[in-house]
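**User:**
Make up any protein.

**Assistant:**
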Amino acid sequence: MEAHPQEILLINPNLMKPPVTPVAIDFLASALKRGGYTVRFLDLAFENNIDLALRRELKRDLLFVGVTIRNVDDSFFATRDFCLMNTKRIILGILNYTHAPIVLGGVGYSIFPAAALEYCGADYGIRGDGEEAIVRLADALAKNEDPTQIPGLVWKRGRKWQVNDPAPVDLSMIDLSDRSTVDNRWYFKQGGMVGFETKRGCNASCSYCADPLAKGAVCRLRPPEQVAREVFALADSGITHFHTCDSEFNMPRRHAADVCREFIHAHPGKRIRWYAYMTPANFDDELASLMKRAGCAGIDFGADHCNEAMLKTLGRKHTANSIAEAARLCRVHKIPCMFDLLLGAPGETPETVREAVEFMKRIDPSCVGASLGMRLYPGTALARALGLQNPPSESIPPFAKGGTGGFTAGTAESVAQSNLRGIHGLSPDNHDFLRPVFFVSPQLGENPESLLFDLVKGDERFFVASPERGESDYNYNDNSVLSEAIRAGERGAFWDILRRLKLRSKSG
């Protein structure tokens, strides 16, 4: 039997600046090492000459090359940067220097498992959790065995991609605390913080969100003591600021509280500062107190809206009252907080946008992110409601004259004509939504961006995504203001760094 190499190369192709920690690489590398494989890591966020770096690393005899895809696009209607295009260029470069199979994975990839694989020209994909699937794939390739029954594997039968159902990993049964493959200290220096994960999956019912598709619809919890061991080991290396990678840190609330208690009890003398994504629900005085004592430096709440009808459309379970209470608790416990607004869903009007903006001004959080436009993902309730559940290309009508992204009659009859005019980016060659497709309520008029800018104009608490860069830019993709601030010594969540810059600028 032919001997196969036991060496595997993992590549991070994410070139966004400031850089974001590729946490999954550490997890996958640990699993492969436990499986007996030698793992090399090429982080292209470090490299000035990508082609030279690829040529250097791909000289080796490799079992396969794994490429992680965190972002397919930047998810902002204002810019609509299709990041996967850069990843495809990198994969084409890989193909110049090796015949080893190329395997894709990651959160962004898992939203579009077949479409992204076809677009990038790779050999296999792993949808969902990769810690077990990647080792099984390595074993199959090393032994010349059939890999096609591996859960989560995406593979080609003839001309058609097959997408196996994923098998979520039981996070209570594996140790993910080894963070030695990625140079996390470099990410702290260049990105201002390092990510960590306390759970995986999300059981919320947000109509627009792809997290349940990519990570699973059940919250799987990591042992709090393991999370603390991981974070404080990173702290021992000189990293002081962290950010959760969870969809919602406080879902479930009990687990969030247990993680905080473990942080408090594990290393009471070591000071760390960390930030979290959270829902305004499941947040009370006790949890706020625990988070503060555990070193929480800021919370980014996914509020989305305050209007009852819009919250229902968005599939959110919290209320305007719970949003206001979350802001109050953060003031009481002196925790900086940001509330994210997601505007433009079906039924959005100038009046509801004004209601959301004025509500945020009244409850007075530390800052507010106002994002206009709903990124449409296949398999979500919002896509189904718009009649856009992976429509075949022949059913997609041509663009309406004027190039606005709206459509003429002929799409699914279940979709109101007014909503069709709000769809941007759908075309016969993009029916799988791989390239950015957005919905913006046509009731907001011809220039919804101006409406939003006029409502927040002059209020320094608001960040609004814009193609024009500045301290008020809400898009963290290639944000030079952020990158320069971090190089100058700022640390923390990107929104908090921008908030502090505004405060200093205002004070002179």
Observations:
- Residues 391-415 have pLDDT under 50 and may be disordered.
- The longest strand covers residues 296-304.
